[in-house]
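Hi C.,

You asked whether I'd gotten around to modeling the 215-residue construct. I have! Everything is below, sequence then structure, no commentary in between.
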Amino acid sequence: MNPQADNPPSTAGHVARSALSDAELLHRHIDGDPQAFSEIVRRHRDRMWAVALRTLGDADEAADAVQDAFVSAYRKADSFRGEAAVTTWLHRIVVNACLDRMRRKAVRPVADDELIEAAERDTPLPDHTGDREISLEVSAALKLLPADQRAALVLVDMMGYSVEDAASVLSVPSGTVKSRCARGRAKLAPILSHLRNRSDLTRVSSAKGAELRDG
């Protein structure tokens, strides 16, 4: 019996590709494998979508940013030098796509007093108990931050990445990530102060971040 007769070529190829590392898949894509990049997208699209959604705070914008990022990664795969993990390289492209969209909107950074006023005007009263309501409040608050601070906080506080990993994604020194996170947290503090003593806030951010980070 021919062992290949029970496995169509496409299925066998999928199994073989799924066993490869991200770097190996990327090299196969560069060498002309028409399905290798699709496997990379399958593995990482949910994680990249989470980063984009947290950063942009808008589902449509996030979807467009992720699409732009994967198209860019597809076309520029030969720029990957293996100095960082493929996931870090993809995160960098996604975050840059998000930042480009935010900058194109030319949103003027708001002052601290404006942040407080916006929170008092737009943030619902702290009578929520569900994870979704808390997540929505955090997302709304994040949208008030400058792009660089928002990106750093999303990676470190929401997605659970180390400062060093976030620095690699953002292509900045670790000290810069720490500074951006500190400034962002300081601006968010008065907005989210009503959530400070709620244990489920930590659970929402850390558990969700671990789930998305680790797949």
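If it helps when you're writing up: Residues 36-56 form the longest helix (21 residues).

Thanks,
B.
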